[in-house]
Amino acid sequence: MSSDKGKNLSITPISPGSDPFKDFNPVLWNPQREENAADLIYSIKRNHGIPGSFKLHNLNDAINDTLPFQDKILVEYKIRDSRYSIFTVSDLLSSPYPFDEQSEGNILGEIAERISRRITKYFLKHLHRSGKTGGIFDQNFDIKNCENFIVAHTRDYVLKIQKYPNLIILKHSGHGKYGYENIKELDGFFDYRFMGRRHIIVLESKLEKINVDCDDLIKNLFNPLRQLFPDSKFYYLLFTDKYSIYSGGSIERLRKLKQLPVKIYEKLLLDGVGTLFFTFNETRSDFEKIKDFLMLQYKVIKNQSLTIFGKTIITPKELTIFDGGETPHIKLVKDIQTGFWREIPLRHKTTRNPR
Questions:
Q1: Which residues lie closer than 8 Å to 201 by C-beta, 6 or more apart?
Q2: Is the distance from CB of 181 to CB of 170 less than 8 angstroms?
Q3: Cβ-count burial of 114 within 10 angstroms (0-12 exposed, 13-18 middle, 19+ buried)?
Q4: With contact defined as beta carbons under 8 Å apart, do 56 and 325 qualify?
Q5: Residues 307-340: tens digit of each pLDDT
Q6: In this predicted model, what pLDDT tens digit does every residue of 91-113 receive, in sequence order?
Q7: Do the bridges between strand 341-343 and strand 330-334 make them parallel or antiparallel, or are there none, so unpaired?
């Protein structure tokens, strides 16, 4: 077995002229007029600049009228004029964990992963006219049938799809299943071509707490990737909330990096890895809102009893209850003569096709 420090692990420095992300890199500068090394700070000149927003849909919404049950959209993400499905019924039914109170941490983490991946895809696609995304999969790649698909491999390492689009890195150690051990899970992996060079971006999403081990990233992520993708440039993209990255009181004005992000940037830079810090458009309460909505829809799909915290409209003849979607969760009409309530079907005059 070859060592991680072999000749295949040569570090390619990132030159500003060929760096497609140079405008997004941390910059060391002095915000004071007088020159003093003690006043130097790291700042971020630009965030991703992608204006995204989410929309919640229940099973009754117009967007789902013509869709098969498994494909009905629950969370949609809008970026400018484009709309993307973030969660569907199928995602909830095929999840390795139930969407209930016991899995709130997993649910929040998955929401963060999916939103950050969508923004990153859009960001890369529109970054440079001469830039191009993709290229890691051939034309025969089938997203619907790609579990355990091997993306790249060497004698010591294997990069494969665990459950699309999540990937894992396996190391040949003689232990574990088939002699390979899982040493790293990847939230997102992007192959970007610019000026004739290949740029590999590894995405990691965090909510509030940044617990990044740079030594582990180098040993179990970037050293293996150097063997798997020689002659490539590598970047670590940390997607989190702005309060975890920037120092308080300077978020909008200076975008001054906190001490931990600075350590991450400097440590990885010494290893020839660039670092990007992007922030979510959503607040923590937004993530909680999406999580609660998905947990509610999970109970609806599973025909479980549920509690709805939503707008309720009561008139002498009608009772309408909303659950966060565009269309009511249920609508009841009262028979004046008998006093009984009956549920009425919810129909839409027009429907639109999801994009």
A1: 120, 124, 188, 189, 190, 192, 234, 235, 237, 276
A2: yes
A3: buried
A4: yes
A5: 777 788 877 878 888 887 778 888 888 787 777 8
A6: 999 999 999 999 999 999 999 99
A7: antiparallel
